[in-house]
Structures are given as C-alpha cells and as structure tokens.
C-alpha cells in the first residue's frame, strides 16, 4: 500500500525583528506492506510478574476464558492496550463522529498472534511464576495451569553487580561461566533456535527483567559498535546483562526493546543496530504514575497554570520493588521518571522564564504487603492567577503488571508494523526504513530514547496524536480532525 | 490578513462491506482584520466573586502591583488565561522546539485593554465586594481600594423564582417594577450608554451572576426570535433575568456569553442572535473539577482504560455555593457537569459497547468555612486489563474565582477576535462570519452550546488543539506539529 | 461472681466563686452469672449483605475454612470484632505490659455459639444472597454453599411507605395482609418457635434490614407502651415494620437491637421494654466513616485543634446504598451521622464558645459499580495556632459488610452478657439489672440511644475505655492503667 | 496542696494455669506547691521557624494583636496547646457533662508568663528570622516588628559533623574555638546571666534547632556522668552541640528538653541530671503525621482491625527539611518516627502473633516550594474481617511550626509544674520528686525517653488520659469519668 502525504512544516529564522516563520510543505510517500509478519517475542525476565502475566493473558484471551470474581463473571480482555482497545477519530459523517478501532485502520498483529518465549534467572515454570506474581485470580490461575506449567524459562545471564543483592536468592537458572563472549553466543543461539523452531519472519527481544544500575558510557568501552563488541570479547566489567541481550538480538537481526530504565542503549548499541538494520527502542514502560503525569502536566501548562512542585511517591511489593530498594537500581528509575516534565516546562517561557523549573521529587519504596498493587501518591501544586495556588493530591492504585503488560504487546505490535514501512521524500523517491531508534514507541515509554539530535516529547496526548496521525497517514486517510473547522463555520455540512 | 488552508477531511459512506472512508481536501480562505477593536465587557454579577476579581486583577496588572504574602513578594499576573499564559508549538528549528506565546501569533486584545462595567443585584461597591469575596490578600485589597471603591454596580434584574431564596437578602439594587419589557429597555439603555460613553467598537455582555433554574423550552414561548420577544412583551413567567440580558445584548448588537449553567440560550435567543449577526456562547465556565475531568477521561479512554465509575464531590463556601444549595439551581449545575464525559464514552465502542456508560455522580455542597477555596474530591475507577481495576482518588483545591476569572478574559478576547474573521470556501469565494453560536469558546465552557446538528467535544486537549490550529491557520502558519514525521525518519533535518 | 468497686465521682455545685467540685466515692457491688446462656440471634434482613455475611462467616470460622486469593491462602477470622480481636490492658508486670484478650477476662459467648435465623422480604436462600452480596471470594462461596443453600429467610413485613420505592422488586417474601396486629402475632410466633426449637435461654432480635424513614413521635401514637400497642391494634399508618419487630421481640422476652438509623425506639417501645425487663439498643452500626470520625474529632479537640469544617462524602453500590438513594431514607441516615461530633464540640468552650459549631455535611450516593466496597471521602479543616489551618483529606475504602458484621456479633455478645449482670449500691445492697436502654453498646453504634436524661458519648476511645473498664470491674481486676503513676515516679517497680 | 490517691494496680504471677492477676491498691500522697515559679525558657535554635514563631506568638497574644487575612480579622490564640486549649472531663452534674479548661484545674503558667531567650548559629534578628520562616501573615509580621527586631540570638555552637553540610551558610553566629570545655563554660555563663538578669526561679533549656546525627553510645564515652564530663574536657569528637547544651543546663540546675530526634539524652546525661536533681525530657515534638498516627493505629488495633502496611511520606521546604535532606540527619528522624506503633502492635497478640509487625515505611523529602507548610501523605492498609482490607489514604497539610510551637509551651509549662510536685507512698510518707526522666511529657514527644526499664506508651488518647488523670489527682478531684457507670445503671442520678 502506498500513500502520499503533504506534510506542513514551519521553517524558522531569527532576524533582528525576532523569529521569522515560513510555512513549507514536504511531500512524503509511505509504502506499507499490508501483511503482518509471523512474529516471535522473546522476553528477558519471562518468569517475572510482567512476563507471566503477558503469557497467561494471551492464553486466556485465545481460549476466551472466563472466571468468577466476587463481583461476577470476568472475561479476558486487552484493556490498556492502545492497539487493541483504543479508537481513532476519523471525522464526522454528518450525523455522528466516526471513531474506528486502532487495529482496523491498517493490518497489525493481535497479541494472540505473538509467539512468546524467554529467559529468566529463576527456574520457576510459568504456573509457579504466576502464583508468585499474585496478579491473576485463583480460578484463572487454575484454568491457565495446563498451558503455563509446561513453560520453563531458558537460563539467563546473571551479573550480581548490576542488580540488587536481594535478587541473589532468585538466581538459580543462570548461564554458567564468566566469559561474556560465550554468554553472547549462548543467547544468540537461543534466538536462532527460537526463530527456526517457529519459522519466524520477525523476532523482537524485550527486556522486562530487573532494573539494572546504569553503566558508564565512555569512549573505548561502548561508544561505537566496534568498541562494544570488543568490550564483550574482553568480558569488560561494564558490560551488563542487558547489553549482552541487546547485542545478541541485533546480531541475529532481531529488534530490541528496553522496558526497564537502565541505559542499555548506549551509543555503541545504537550504532550496531544501525549497521544491522534493526530497531531498538526504550526506555521503561510508561504505565502508571508517570503516564498520568505526562498527561496532567501538559494539561496544566496548556491551561496557563504553573506547576511549581511535583512530588511523586510510589510503593509496591513485588520483585520489581524489591530490586529497586537498592540505591543504584533506584537511581536508574529516578532518572527515567524525572525527565518526564522537562519538555513541557521548556515549552512555556511565560510560566517558566529561562532557568526556572518546578521542584520535582520521586520516591519509590518497597512495601511487601501491597504486592503487585502499586500505589502512587502525588501532590501537584500550581501557581495560578494572581498568586493563588491549586493543589492536586492523587492516590492512584495502579496494578503494576496489569498496566505494564498491554504495553509489552503494543511495543511488539508497533515494532513489527514499523518493519513493514518504507517512506520517501517525494522529491527523490528513495525509500528508506524508519530510523533505527524507533521513536514511534514513545507513547509507551517513560524516557523515550530518540534519534540523536531530535527532541523528546513526553506529553501523552501529543504522543497519542502523533501515533494515530501516522497510522491514518499510512492508510491514506489522514485528516485534520483536530481542527473541526466545519463545526464553527456555516458551510454546508453534508457529506 | 488573508490566508488559505487546505483542510483534509474524510467523507464516509456505509457499504455492505462496512464503512468506506474517502479522504478529501477542502480549501478555505480566512480573512482576519488585524487590528483589535476597542472592546467593552459588561458583567452581569459584577459584584460577585468573579466580577470583583476580574476588575481588580486588571487594575493590579495594569499598575504592575505587587504585594507581600508570607511566602514573599507576589506580582500581578494572568496565569490561567490561555490567551495570556499559554504557548503554541510551531515546530522544530533543527535545534529546539519552537513555542510562541498564544498572544503573539495574531493580534488579540489583552485583558488590560478591556473596559469593564456591569450590573449586580447588590449595591456594594467593588471594594466592599472584593472584601466580601475573600479572594485577594489584604494588602492587595488596600492597594486596589482607590480604583475599586468608586465602582458601583448598575441595578440589575431580580426575579426571585429563578435563583435561590437565600439570595433575597442580597437583592438591594434591583430595577423596580415587574414589567419585563421595561426591564429589557432599561438594560438596552445601559448597554447603549456604556457603548457611547467609551466609544466602543465591540461590546460583550457576560453572565457571571447566580446560577438560575432551568426555564421551560416550549413552542409558543421561546422557540423563535418572535416568540421570545413576544413573551418578554407579555412578561411571561418563564422569561428569566438572563433571557432579558441576552436579548438586550443581541438587540444592541452586543455579543452574549453565558458563564453559568442555566439554559439561557434557548432556540429563540439563538435565532435572534442569528438575525442580528452577533455571537452567543455558553454554558458555564470550565475551570476546576470538570476541566481536569475532561482531560483525564480522554486520557484514560485513549489509553484503553475504561472508566466505570466517576464520583465527583465539590464543596465551596462562597455565594455561588450558597445559591446552589437549593435544588433547582443545583440541578442546572448538575446537568452542565454531567454531560462532560459523554462524547469520550461514545467514541470508544470497544470499551463501551452501545448503551454502556460509566456510573457518574455529581455533588455540590455549601460549606461556608471554605469560602472561595472550592474543594473538589473525585474518585475514578477504571476497569483495566484482565479484570483489574485502577482507582484514582483526587483532592483538588481549586480557588474558585482565581480559576474562573482568567476564563472570563479569554472568552471576551476570543469573541472579539471572532468578530474580525471572515472565511470562504475557495470554491465560491463568498466570505462569511463564523456561526452565531461561537463554538470556538468550547475550551472554556463546561457544557458547550454548539450549532444545531454539530457534535460537542469536551476533551480538553482536543479542544486546545482545535483552537491553536485555528489560530495558526489564521496566521498562515498551520503545521502538522502533532505528527513530527521528521523525527522518526532519517531525512535531513536541516531547516 | 461478685465484685466490689469503689467508684470515684465528682459532685458539683455552682457558687458565687464558680464551680465547686467535691470528690465522692460510691461503692458498687456487681454480680455476674459466669455461664453464658444458650443464645439465639434473629436477624431482620438476614438475606441482605450483613445478614448473609454474618451467617456465612460463622460457618467459615466453625469449619476452619480456608480459601485461595491471589495474595495467598486466607483463613476465616473475627477481625473487627472488639470482643474477639481486641485486648485489654491490665497493667505492667515489671517486665512488660500485660494485655489480655477481651474474651478471656470474663466468660462471654463466641460468635460460633450463636444460633442464627431471620426474616427477609426477599426469598433468596442464603447461598443466592451471598452471591448477590459480592462480599466473599468465589471459592469461599462454594465452600459455604452446602451450609448456606438450605437456609431460606422467613417471610417479613413490608410496608412500602417506609423504605425506598426501588425496594419493591425485592419484596417477594412478605407476610400477607394489612392487619398490623396479625403481623405482630406472626412475628411473635416466629420468635416463640425459634426459641422452642433450639431450646434457647436468650433471644436477641437485631434489625439489619433496610433503613426506614423516620416515624412521627406524638402523644396518642407511640409515647407509652399502651399507646403503641393500641396503635398496632389499630394498624396505624405510622407503625413501621421495625416497630412491629421490636414489639414482638419485647413481648416474647427477647432483646431488640436496631442496627439501622431509623427511630424505631420511640418512647412507647422503651416503656414496653422496661415493663417486660428486656433490653433495647441502637441506633445504626458505627463501622466506617463515622467510627473513625468519632476517634479523630476527639483526638483533634483534645489536641487543642478546632475542627471548623467536616465534610463527609460516601458512596456505595449495595442494596443499602440503593435504598438510601431516596430522600426520606437518606434523611434518617443523615441524622444518625450528624450528631456524632456534638458531644466533643460541647466539651470544649475554649475552642467553641457557646453557640459555635463546625460546618458539618454528610452525603451518601448510590454508585452501583463499587458494590459493597463503600468509599468514604472526608475533609476535615481545623483552625490551629495563630490562624493557621490543618487540613486532613481522607479516602477510606470501607468494605461495608465486612466492617458491620463483626459489630453484629459484638452487639449480641454484649447484650447476652448484660443479661447476666446485676449490680447494687453497697449502701442498700439491692441488686438490679442494667437500664433497659443498653448504653454499653454505644461503642458499636453511630447514634447511641441512651437512658432518658443521660448524656451521649460518641468518642470512640472513651467508649472503648468505658467498656473495658466495666469488663475488668466485673472480673474484679479494674485498675488505673490509664494513669501509670508507677512509671514517672521513682517507687520500687517490683511486683 | 496535698492530696491522697488510692491507685488500683494489678499484680501478676504466672502459674501452671496461666496468668494470675491480683488486684492491689497503693495509696499515694501528692504535694503540689500551688504558686508557679518565675520561669525562663532558653531555646537552642531561637532563630529557626519554631523559635521565631514561639517568641512572636507570645507577643501577639500578650498584646492581643489582630490582623487581617483575606478571610477576615484574625486574633492571636494558643490553639494546639493542650495546656491552654484543651478541657478535662470532670463528670456529670445531673444536667450536663462538666469539662473544665486544663489550665483551671491547678495553677500552671501561661505562655504569656514565659521569659524567652536563646541561641542560634545564624545572627538574623527575630524580625528577619520571622520573615525567613514564612509562618506569619505580613501584617502580623509588621505589628510584631518593634518587639522582634531588637532580639538577636546569642552565638551558638556549630560542629559541622553533626548537621547537614547545607547548613554551613547559615552558621555565622557561632562561638569561636574548638575547645568543647570552653564551649560548655560559655553556655553555662549564658544560662547564669539569663537567670540572674531576670531573677528566675526556674530555667528550662529546650532544643528546637537542627536535627543532629546520632552519636555513638559507648562505654568510656558517655555512659556515666563522669564519662561524659571527661569527654567534654577532652573535646571528644562524639560530643555533639546538643550534648554541650544539655550538660550546661544540668550543671546550672536548668531542665533540658530535646525537641529534635537525635539521641542527646545518652545515659551519661541522664545520670548527670539525676545527680543534679533536674529534669530531662525528649525526643522530638509529636505534632503532625506521627501524632495522628499514634491516635489512629491505637484506634484501629482497639477496633480489632490489623494494620498491615503503614506508609508515611512527608515533604517540607523549611530549613528543617533542608537539614533532613542529608542521610544521617534523616536517619535520626526515621528512628524517632518508626517506633511509634510498636507498643500498639505488641499489645495485641491476636492480630499480631509474636514476631509479626506491619510493614512501616517513613520518607521525608525536601521540597522548597511548600516552605513551612509540611505535607504528610499516608496510606494505612488493614486486614479486616474474613480477609477483607480497609485502606485509609490521608493527605495532611500540617503547618510545621504552627503545630510544633504550642508543644514548646506545653513542654515548658508541664516541666515547671513537675518541679512543684512531690509524692510519697502513704506507707513510708517520704516525699520525692518525679523521676529525672520526665515521662509525663510523652504526649508531646514522638519517641518519648522514659526511665530505664519502663515501657513507652505512644497512643495519643492513652497519653492524654494519663496526663489529665494526673492533673485531677494533684487537684484532689480524680474521678472514674471514663467508666460512667451511672449512665447504664438505674441508680438515682441526682447530685
């Protein structure tokens, strides 16, 4: 399918009189292969809460499972997945607004189509993992048992320096030895076998395992593809497990997505992805407190209200929380959660004259009793008109894995879609794939990695608009639905 | 200034195979008179909290007033006004995102330019009114005293049947008699005098007085311009004070905006506005709980989360709260607050199969102690993935008048702008004004009145996008900034 | 068992110099029959949420049931019952504080000992009722099924004028006819049969059915025992179903407790109880929002902080909420919830000079989605030192029936205990039972009915101290544990 | 004034059959000197928020100051002071409950009687300090200026190792040198001069300065009076500024109270206090989050509800918050806040079988924007009946200094009272003062220091009962008001 799109874009120059804005139009051609590829998803940390929930929910949906809760009969669903449960506004038919399901605009995979396998440092089978996760109701756990019990995670890589010491007990399913080159080969072999076994056209490796500490980013270590491969060969200390997985994926032609906050995607890995024509994306699922923050702060700033203080407390009791209770791992998380308002603050120099920023504070605590039922408690204080203050206090019960898992599907589904798209500038007609850093995933990520030199956009509704506009453009039906000129004018409204 | 805009719009037809979508382009031409008009704003209820705050804040801003608070020196500002404190994203200059203040895109009025006068059923001068309002700090009150004390509201119309009985004590500044025709003439004279005295090009009458009960809407009474004029002549019981003000405004060529929830804008009044080529807009300032709800629910539904229960409690202690403590007045408010999620619910048939709606409950209580410092307490419960639930609990301290007053300015400023715009379909080239029901004000209103047969859109970020897209279109610099294709492609990013 | 207690009490006289306080001592003798009686508990509304939960939980505890939840294995318990789960502080043994379970001080019944039956206007058996209630987890429901399914409520009395119209559908199990005298006889027969069938020594009838509207309290109707019996004979309109149940109980020598807010215990019924030597108690279980309010406000006032505004919102989705969605039934509830801070306010004339009271507002809304999981949202604002304000905002997820049911057991258990107590003034040695209005139940009731002329005390911790002091007094081991002189003095601390 | 009190106390022995409880009575004689002493209060940290607020509020109260706020005219008061604003229940006079102001039972000082001076490491005068504190309204600040400006703190002791590095800038008013012995002499001289200048009978030194890190408690350093004096002579590193102040106070016969959480009151200092017959008390004002926690958890546990998880977040922006943003200082605070529920948990072995404790987590963050307006956000989750859960979420806006300052007065007033009390066991008649560790201050302190071997009681209402019982006992009018036998019996109620 080939579509043309006339992209309106302003060009800027600064003159003595100030900013000069010149509107221009660029014509793009998009070519989208319509048939989704047979796709495999390999989860690092498949035995964790997200991992077992991802796998279980697909079985539950495929088998149309239902289960009793005290509130009544519950049915499997894909709520919280943008690709499966959102709709896109296409326009007005003269009678009503037309909204079409996201997954009916252009052909994309369903989570049900994904073939899943993965690694974990713990050897519990997925039935045991699911019980440990405390996410599904008991009756559902039992209905899933025959499907989940046979699945045992492949051994994973465990370098204790990168995750919290309290994870040591869990690490009973690890690839032996200390030679990182061998570990890389092991993982590459796992990917090759998986691909061959299922005859896959597309493989995506996605990290949903423990948050690692940050690694150093220094020349000689990991600034280029060559450097990082050499560092693996040398079993360099700063090569993390997630580095190994990302490199293995790329070398096998698989795409790599980082669902945790650590800085896996160092320049050397992005360079490697570029050379191997695969996508990388990250960091950190945007599912709960940060997601709503990225919508709320945008709302406030656009309303002309000035957030002065944003205090975000969290506590959770699952293994993610346990791992984050050590300082270095928390630090990774703190970084990914902190930058989320920066672009919105910088967008408004009336409220925030250069150099001003709101107080912004992030806390995560491990509270075993709450389990996977993560609690986010936020206080936003805005300066409003004439020195007044508006204070928002929010208590948000975010079921951690139930919010994150749909994002895993969406990340995989959008990545697969991206592999089918080529675009060209109409002037030269040369078709290319998207940039290897796949920024269309930003909607789903707390601290989006973007192509070097391009801006990060965190505002949820803007990200959503960007993604849906792309989807309708690919389908050749992009419309200026946000403008709705027809409703405030007196032109005939007939179709 | 004349600009052309190619508006992309989908046309729809239903076939045996389902919905057929055909993209089309319409070319519009916009002509905007660049020089803002000298504009007068007449407030009904100028002695109320919003009224005295509106007037006082303009003096404070014009005179660059500062005042001490325990936190330090405070400066007058226009935070919370979209036209004065928001920025619009124009694009990327290769280095950074370009955001320009809303009021620098095309020439619009500043609140400082507005000439204000108004009516009130109470005769307190605006210094007394300001003290009664409990909105400004004492030091600011004293600095404003010389400007506020001389302003005394013009006598207003008081029909006890329309507002709460507890307002009776306040009604000491009313136009005598019971002949509604005479009242209409009295108000028309006030408008004429005001216009003449200040030599105004544009007058806007804005209701920020007590919420009235709903009036009946029945044929013979108020369905056409003729009917409603006849009903005024007959002093019909169902002609409310706000009807009189709206009719007086329209007959004097002034625009009329309803900042309260009652149904002033009955078909007869819209018809009258149409005949007199003036704008009407309403209903009910969207400033606090409902405003954030219109952003949050849109965020949730677009995230694929399903709001199942939305419970919105409010309490306040100012005179608005006192008036709303009677059932019929509360009912008007309840209606305007209730419809706000309807369009978002209808937009998603995956989450809400036909006929489903969330439980939605609105409560407003009068609690004198909190004064103007309105408290909104909300609980949102969403069904999420696999039967889980996400619960958001929000306590929102909304300073009532400090949030509403900037909207009063914005409503007036955007209305004045609208009077300067003509548009044409490029095919016929005939220039027309906007529809007399001014739906570009929707961003600022809880229950937007829209032209008959057109859809209501309540989602804040969509409304904001719609408005800012119009503004850039008028300026000839509309861009597809929401799409940001340039950042996920590999095209040269140079300017 | 007989114990003596020297009760320290101040006597007061007012003189020209002010209040004169004279300490006096009264010696009391308490005689407690140690063996608990075989006791039956008859619930009005046994098919409601509280009813089915009460019955089910006793089976679950007796059978030591366990069930799986996603968090793990759950065991039946009696948490939330003061008699079963609280401890009483007896003193210090030189090493540690000695706290003994409440039910080990003097012999009292266990909930497991109660024999339960009851009436309901709906004919669902208790298994169906339990499913409808949405209180227990599905696995527990199934384990209880064999015990619950055979239990079918006896037909009850339904006078539509007293409860909400929306209860009409539910009323399919009612005693026919309109002759209230016959209804009384029918219920008396039910009580007699129950007593005989189980060979009971003590029967308690407890209303846990729908909240009724208030009845008139007027001379000629219900001011004396004779009047109210005559009114029943005459099938007077103002004789409510709960009146009939109370009268039937009293005439059969059974004690009557009102767990709902309506004014069942009119003077005529108290008079009748007096004449028949049975206890009556009420009104309205104190289980959630009001319970914590009665602790918090006492805490605040004793801290010298002045609550100025107390706003209490509630919503729930069970049948209680549905019934309360009509105005007259809500009004009963509003009254019982409103008076709870009055005694604390009156206790402090420094904070509240005569005539001052805080703003206090109560709202209950019916929100079906939340079911039995009642939500209470409160805002307390206190004036503090030097004009400052402390604001407490509370969101309280109170599982409605899980909080109320333990109170049902406690009410029955304490009532049975009261039947075994006689006391005498040591001066005359004449032993008497407690007053027929059983005020020792106050801890468990929102609006305690007390003997005429005696004060109501709502402060939770004071009520708790009062009850536990009585229990230790009966056991002959009352101590001044609250004073703890031994710890700030230097006397030898040895035992 | 001399009063006798028969104290009921249980004695315990453990037998084969279990615990044996034997009630006993001890007769005590209390002798209270009725005339309060002329008392001086010396604040360490007088230039901090609490310090300047304490001094300013006394002037405001003495001069009956009023000031305008936007809500109206505000009057100086002592709300939040138990001694000045609480009442004590004395009994029932047949008509109504008799509550008498705390300060009318026995003669005690008023804050107005206190003569205040103090030290600070910063040389701002108290007018400047008051502005910096952001506690009082501007108009009040100006009214206080003539009284506050002349007061300049005496130079204080600054050992950078004990407080946060960020306090370095503030330290411009310090006693020179590094010889701790000389510092001790300097402070002793300050105390002597103050006492002589004002001809005082009683001096109290109270630490309301920065939280220090914990010091080591080791033999040879500070386990006895001799050791700690020798350590001062040797200028030992582990001798903190607060140690010096405490020792100086004791050696000058002044009482010492620690309002911060650090462990100033090491065994050597308590020993020294014993030898010099002065009182010491601490630690850490109980004013906000912890105070309400100590009431709430007691309420929950006594209700038979089981707190399983208590998560307490705080943020504040004053200098206390800034100092606590370093780890060692926060650690002191964390300890004092953590132990507060321990006694309540240990009191109930039904809910908490041996070894069980709730998850309990404390966080304090420095958020400059909120200033002195401290925010506490708590989540309590209780296991309730049959595996249910009750969740309380609290947002508590606690004005930090406005809550703490009244406690400073109360601590001083109660300490002065304690100096006037002697008690004797009636058996030997030998009169003694209270223990040198003044545990009657516990009500006001987060982590009460108690005499060795005695239990800590944190439950607010129990502490309140203990204190008020003592006060009425001293006045000879102690009554069993908590029991209220007269209301559930049928004895004559006449006076």
From TrEMBL, chains A, B, C, D:
**EC number assigned by the record:** 5.5.1.4
One Gene Ontology molecular-function label? inositol-3-phosphate synthase activity
GO biological process, any: phospholipid biosynthetic process
- Localization, UniProt: Cytoplasm
Q: Which SUPFAM superfamilies match?
A: Glyceraldehyde-3-phosphate dehydrogenase-like, C-terminal domain, NAD(P)-binding Rossmann-fold domains
Q: Does the keyword Zinc-finger apply?
A: no
Indicate whether Chloroplast appears among the record's keywords: no
- Which GO CC terms are listed, alphabetically? cytoplasm
Domain of life here? Answer: Eukaryota
User: Which keywords appear in this protein's UniProt record, sorted alphabetically?
Assistant: Cytoplasm, Inositol biosynthesis, Isomerase, Lipid biosynthesis, Lipid metabolism, NAD, Phospholipid biosynthesis, Phospholipid metabolism
- List cofactor names only: NAD(+)
- Which is an annotated Pfam family here? NAD_binding_5
Q: Using the record's annotation, list all stretches that form the Myo-inositol-1-phosphate synthase GAPDH-like domain.
A: 288-401
What does the record note on quaternary structure?
Homotetramer.
Task: Tell me its family.
Answer: Belongs to the myo-inositol 1-phosphate synthase family.
This chain's protein is named: Inositol-3-phosphate synthase
Species source reads Haemonchus placei (Barber's pole worm)
């Amino acid at each position: 399918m080939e579509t043309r799109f006339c992209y309106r874009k302003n060009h800027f120059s600064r003159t003595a009189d100030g900013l000069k804005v010149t509107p221009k139009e660029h014509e793009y051609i998009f070519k989208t292969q319509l048939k989704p590829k047979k796709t495999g998803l390999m989860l690092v940390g498949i035995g964790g809460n997200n991992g077992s929930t991802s796998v279980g929910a697909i079985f539950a949906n495929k088998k149309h499972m239902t289960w009793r809760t005290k509130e009544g009969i519950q049915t499997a669903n894909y709520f919280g997945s943008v690709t499966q449960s959102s709709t896109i506004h296409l326009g007005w038919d003269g009678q009503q607004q037309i909204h079409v399901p996201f997954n009916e605009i252009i052909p994309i995979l369903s989570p049900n189509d994904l073939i899943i396998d993965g690694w974990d440092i713990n050897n519990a089978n997925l039935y045991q993992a699911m019980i440990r996760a405390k996410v599904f109701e008991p009756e559902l756990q039992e209905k899933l048992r025959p499907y989940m019990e046979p699945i045992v995670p492949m051994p994973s890589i465990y370098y204790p320096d990168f995750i919290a010491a309290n994870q040591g007990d869990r690490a009973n399913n690890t690839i032996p030895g200390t030679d990182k080159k061998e570990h890389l080969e092991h993982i590459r072999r796992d990917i090759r076998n998986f691909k061959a076994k299922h005859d896959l056209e597309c493989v995506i490796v996605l990290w949903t395992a423990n948050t690692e500490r940050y690694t150093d980013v220094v020349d000689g270590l990991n600034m280029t593809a060559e450097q990082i491969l050499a560092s693996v060969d040398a079993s360099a200390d700063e090569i993390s497990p997630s580095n190994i997985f990302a490199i293995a994926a790329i070398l096998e032609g698989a795409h790599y997505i980082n669902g945790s906050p650590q800085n896996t995607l160092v320049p050397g890995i992005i360079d490697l992805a570029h050379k191997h024509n695969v996508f990388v994306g990250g960091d950190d699922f945007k599912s709960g407190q940060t997601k709503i923050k990225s919508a709320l702060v945008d709302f406030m700033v656009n309303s002309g209200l000035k957030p002065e203080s944003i205090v975000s407390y969290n506590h959770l009791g699952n293994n993610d929380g346990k791992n984050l209770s050590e300082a270095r791992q928390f630090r990774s998380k703190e970084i990914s959660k902190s930058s989320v308002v920066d672009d919105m603050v910088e967008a408004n120099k009336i409220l925030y004259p250069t150099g001003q920023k709101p107080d912004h504070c992030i806390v995560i605590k491990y509270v075993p009793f709450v389990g996977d039922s993560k609690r986010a408690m936020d206080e936003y204080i805005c300066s409003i008109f004439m020195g007044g203050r508006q204070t928002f206090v929010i208590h948000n019960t975010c079921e951690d894995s139930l919010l994150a898992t749909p994002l895993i599907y969406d990340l995989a589904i959008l990545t697969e879609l991206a592999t089918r798209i080529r675009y060209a500038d109409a002037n030269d007609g040369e078709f290319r794939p998207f940039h290897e850093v796949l920024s269309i995933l930003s909607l789903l990520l707390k601290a989006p990695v973007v192509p070097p030199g391009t801006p990060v956009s965190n505002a949820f509704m803007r990200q959503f608009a960007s993604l849906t506009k792309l989807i309708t453009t690919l389908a050749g039906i992009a419309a200026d639905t946000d403008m709705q000129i027809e409703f405030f004018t007196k032109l005939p409204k007939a179709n």
